[in-house]
Amino acid sequence: MPELAQSHIREGGQDRTSLLRRDVDEAAARRSLREQIAHLERQLSALFTSAHPRRGLEWQVRAPGGPRLLGMGELEALRDDLAARVEDARRTLRDRAYVETRNRERIEEMMVEPERFKWVRISNDDIGEPGCKHWHARPRLGLIGMLMGWWRVKISSGCP
User: Fold this and answer.
1) Which has the closest alpha carbon to 80: 45, 49, 42, 36?
2) What pLDDT digit, counting tens, does each position of 40-65 carry?
C-alpha cells in the first residue's frame, strides 16, 4: 500500500495519489479529534468528581444519535460542545468555591461577634458540605435577650 501512495496511478483520468493522501490526512484529523474529545470527557468527569457532593453540575455526555461513524463536522461540533461544557463547569465550581469560602469566613465572624449578624442562618449546604447542620445568630433569652443585645450563635446538632 505505501507503494501506491507514492506512485502516480491514473484511473479514469483521476490522480490516485491525491485521493490516498486526502484519506490519510482525514484519518489523522479524525484521530486527533477523537483524542481531543476523550481528553475533554476526562476533564469533565474529573470536575464532576471533584465537585462531589455538590449538585447541579451537568456531567453526562450526550450521544449524537445511534451507533454510527461521525463525520468531521459532527466530531468538531461534539468537541466544541464538550469544551464549552468543561469551561462552564469550571466557572460554576469557581463561583461556588468563592461563595462557600465567603460563607465559612462569615461563620467565623459570626462566632466572634454574633450581634453583627442578627438572625443570619448559614447551613452546611452553603459551605459545600453534606449534612443538615446550620449556624444561626439569635438572641440568648428570646425577647429579653433581643432587647438587651444578648446575641449568640446556635449550632444545630444536624439532621432531625
Assistant:
1) 36
2) 989 988 888 888 777 666 666 666 66
Outline where DSSP puts E strands in the chain.
Answer: 10-11, 14-15, 121-123, 134-139, 151-155
3-state class (DSSP) for residue 15: strand
Question: Residue 49: in which H helix or E strand, if any?
Answer: helix 16-50
Say which DSSP state 28 is in: H
Amino acid 160 reads P
The pLDDT, as a whole number, for residue 22 is: 58
User: Is the whole-model pTM more than 0.85?
Assistant: no
Task: Return the C-alpha cell found at 145.
Answer: 435577650
33: closest CA among 85, 70, 62? Answer: 70
